[in-house]
Amino acid sequence: TDGDKFIDGLPKCELHLHIEGTLEPEMVFELAKRNNKALKYESVEKLREVYDFENLQSFLDIYYDGANVLIHEEDFYDLAFAYFKKAHEDNVLHAEIFFDPQTHTDRGVEFKDVIDGLTRARIDAEKEFGISAYYIMCFLKHLTEEEAIETLKQSIPYKDQIIGVGLDSTELGNPASKFKKVMKMSKDAGYQLVSHAGEEGPPEFVSDALDILNVERIDHGIRSLEDDKLIKRLAKEQIPLTLCPLSNCKLCVIDKMEDFPLQAFLDANICCTINSDDPSYFGGYLNDNFKCVNKSLNLTLEDLQTLAKNSFKASFAPETKKEEWI
Ligand code: ADE
Ligand code: ZN
């Protein structure tokens, strides 16, 4: 359709993407072979069949299991470079990409190998595609704050390669207060702060991320809509939300795409953005997310333009870059 063509041509930023969530089943098999790792699944098709989730946790179990094939520096390079190629095809000019060091260091992989592979891919992609990218290191909420502090320490020698720190993984049972100290330490170390909140958890989890952790951007935040006062605050303070429509459908945060409450966020003048979260697991990259939402919600071209503009506005790129892109 015309909308699809418009979306293809629209320059945009990706602000909520887990690099481990771009691991396609084909690459799982390739890396398993290269690294002599046995897999529980007999084929790519059989692996794809288990990508049927009922909530966040049922997804996370599969996602952490998949990451076991990532071992060497070149594995992280191949993973990230493949993503950059896809992102460039979607007319993504800039990406701010999450990585979960603990998922790897807990298995004996060196922090250095993770960040070196990712960084080398970023530099090569910048040269080959002209795409710009930053990395955001996430602490896993299901682990302890002490473990997050240990990871923060490991990151310091590489802090020039990392723009910020985020919090992801299991939301329920892991409130913002659990990570107050490590997030303050991260800010003091020069990192920008973001956090997943209000995906499965209630709106208070979003306010707590703002008040207790002082994050600058909320990842998901879809459940903010249950609190009028919070919605007014997000609009007034122009706190960006990185929404992920296909993710919300696949993890049963919403029943169907027609229920994705994008219009409510737009009407409230909130700086909302569209993102792909874990595209290999949720059925599509950034333009697939835009197209799906556009089709289900009958957006106007102006809405699509607003969403793309918001993505530049909400990014951590320098103002001069933003002006050039917008
Ligand atoms: N890790 C990867 N994707 C995630 C999501 N949608 N929510 C929380 N943690 C995640
Ligand atoms: Zn996420």
Automatic annotation (TrEMBL):
Ranges in a coiled coil: none
Keyword Membrane: no
InterPro entries according to UniProt: A_deaminase_dom, ADE, Ado/ade_deaminase, Metal_Hydrolase
Pathway(s) where this gene product acts: Purine metabolism; purine nucleoside salvage
Highest taxon above the source species: Eukaryota
GO cellular component, one term: cytosol
GO molecular function: adenine deaminase activity; metal ion binding
Keyword entries, A-Z: Hydrolase, Metal-binding, Nucleotide metabolism, Purine salvage, Zinc
Methyltransferase keyword on record: no
Position of the signal peptide: none
Obligatory cofactor(s): Zn(2+)
Domain Adenosine deaminase: 11-326
One Gene Ontology biological process: nucleotide metabolic process
NCBIfam families tied to this protein: aden_deam, PRK09358.1-6
Identification of the protein by name: Adenosine deaminase
Record organism: Fragilariopsis cylindrus CCMP1102
Taxon lineage: Eukaryota, Sar, Stramenopiles, Ochrophyta, Bacillariophyta
